[in-house]
Amino acid sequence: MGLARARRSLERAFAASVPQVVLSSGFAGGLNPGLPRGAVLVEGPEGNPWVGRLLAVGAIPGRFVSV
Predict the structure, then answer these.
(1) Is residue 8 part of a domain?
(2) Other CB atoms within 10 A of residue 28 CB
(3) Exposure string (b/e) for 30-54, b if CB count within 10 Å is 16 or more?
(4) Residue-wise pLDDT tens digits, 33-63
(5) How many domains does the chain have?
(6) Is residue 53 part of a domain?
(7) Residue 38: per-residue pLDDT
């Protein structure tokens, strides 16, 4: 547990293979009362096929910030 162990684990994993997609799931949408329950938000580079697919089935464009 903890930041240092998480960082080491990710560094080892990324040394072996860099992911093409990262999925994050959580409660962030619950912090915006304007979003409906169960809303799927998506952010990614323009032209990314995953972003296009998600938007095509109803995902909402969003901005993710991690601190």
Answers:
(1) no
(2) 15
(3) eeeeeeeeeeebbebeeeeeebeeb
(4) 888 888 888 998 888 898 999 999 999 998 8
(5) 1
(6) yes
(7) 82
């580079």: which residue's tokens?
Answer: 45
DSSP the chain: --HHHHHHHHHHHHHH---S-----SSGGGG-TTSPTT--EE---TT-HHHHHHHHTT-EE------
Which domain covers residue 28, as residue numbers? Answer: 20-67
Phi, psi of 62 (to 5 degrees): -145, 180
The predicted-structure confidence for 10-41, as pLDDT tens digits, reads as follows 899 999 998 887 777 766 556 778 888 888 88
Nearest Cα to 55, choosing from 37, 43, 38? 43
